[in-house]
Amino acid sequence: MRTSIVNCTDSLARLQRLIQRFASEQITCSFDIGPSCWSVMAERAQLDAALINLCVNARDAMPNGGQLRVRVQNVPEGSRLPPQLPRADYVEFLVADDGIGMEPVVLEHATEAFFTTKEASGGTGLGLAMVAGFASRSGGALVIESAPKRGTTVRLLLPRAPESGQTVNDDPIASAKLDKVLEYIRTPALRFALQEWRALCPAQGLPRPIAIEGRLAEQADHSMVLAVEPGASPNLRLLRMGSALELALGNKQLGALQIEGSIAVGTLAAAYRRAYHSRFPSYEYAKYSFEGDAPGVFERLILPTATDGKTVSHLVGLIRLSDNLDVGRNDHVEAE
Helix (H, G, I), strand (E, B), or coil: what is residue 325? Predict the structure, then answer.
């Protein structure tokens, strides 16, 4: 499923009747849509499912009736945000109830998969976990506030979509370049990564780093995240390196890219700078060998991302090392 620009006002208006239908007669529903609500970049069906999940949880927390409040509003850059979110514009979906609330120990585990307090009624413990996963993949966050007998308030924050325009998939030149890169890539995991980057690209912009890292969580052991200090020759600062990648590299050097606080990685610093300046993925495949070691295969994909959706702020690099020399057709390939 591909992300798209979702009109938040239309989404809530579309779901309003459904939410009222599954709420019991003892529950009063109120809906508040802020003026000129921004759009978000998300998977429409998953956003609908997330809001329905939150409203079902709120209904179940009020067995004797109460009030269910649903609100959508803009959260401009500079507002108070959860610490894991970068400064940017967001849209907040708020679902609140005045039901039984949660004990602190329950609240602590609320978003864990298969954790549920509703076993008797068939609860699976997947609802909040799915919503939290959706928020993370979309570059946002899920915040829950609750106390016993004081109800629960859940805030789903999603980044504002850039102004309308062509996405990378609508631009025939950019789309053709991406298709060419996909043809070159040998490792299925890296092909998947590029397709996810492509799917997350907003209109005339770049995916946010938190969204890419969420989508590629299973590849975290083989990835590295670099912060970029802008400039003609940008300085790259290592934030995270996966354990499998660090173990594979050891103290070896794959080129001259010096990163503060870490060993050298990559065949050329130019590849990272190319991804920064072009705002486009950079891919390299090559055979390599170190003194005393058997030759191997090096494959790297660098994905540019932007906390504001526009200016490159981080580079997510995925690197695979293998001793299988039969996976490639050429000794060295670069694609941009």
Answer: coil
- CA-nearest of 225, 170, 222, 220 to 199 is 170
Q: Measure Cα distances from 317 to 34, 167, 183, 295 in Å.
A: 39, 22, 19, 22
Find the mean pLDDT for residues 49-62.
91
pLDDT on residue 116: 54
Confidence category of residue 262, pLDDT binned at 50, 70, 90: very low
Query: Each residue of 158-187: pLDDT tens digit?
Result: 988 765 445 566 667 777 788 888 888 888
pTM over 0.70: no
Q: At the topology level of CATH, where does 4-159 sit?
A: Heat Shock Protein 90 (3.30.565)
C-beta of residue 241 within 8 angstroms of C-beta of residue 224: yes
CATH class of the 172-335 domain in this structure: alpha beta
- The H or E element containing residue 288 is strand 282-288
Q: Which residues pair with 42 in a beta bridge?
A: 4
Q: Does the pLDDT value for residue 252 go beyond 70? A: no
154 with 97: CB under 8 angstroms?
A: no
Query: In the beta sheet, which residues pair with residue 237?
Result: 227, 260
In the chain, domain spans? 4-159, 172-335
Write a three-state SS string for 83-94.
CCCCCCCEEEEE
CA distance 248 to 201: 31
Residue 115 clears pLDDT 60, i.e. is over it: no
